Amino acid sequence: MLIAAILTLAVGTYTMRLSGVMLRDRLELSDSLQRLLPMAAASLLAALATTAALMEGAGFAGIARPAGVAVGALLAWRKAPFVVVVLAAAGTAALLRLAGIN
Hints:
Layout: H1 2-22, H2 31-54, E1 55-56, E2 59-60, H3 64-77, H4 82-98
Antiparallel strand pairs: 1-2
Helix pairs in contact: 3-4
Organism: Actinoplanes friuliensis DSM 7358
Protein name: Branched-chain amino acid transport
Transmembrane segments: 41-61, 82-101
């Protein structure tokens, strides 16, 4: 079942990408829509990241995970090296969980 789902998504992704190339000359988007598309992609990515940071299954993930994400986001914003960002975020979540704060 999992392999069938992966193959279906792969075929769908390939079809969407191919249709974009094939319809490039036939489809013309307005200037306002062309300005909105990058913002739509960014908002979709932000919603996905927020959901992953705050939810575990159908419930709230607890305080440790969002705190780790917040530390990582702060360090990334301050342009810290990627390894430092990942280790600090993971360390923050781990220390909070070790302290009994889920």
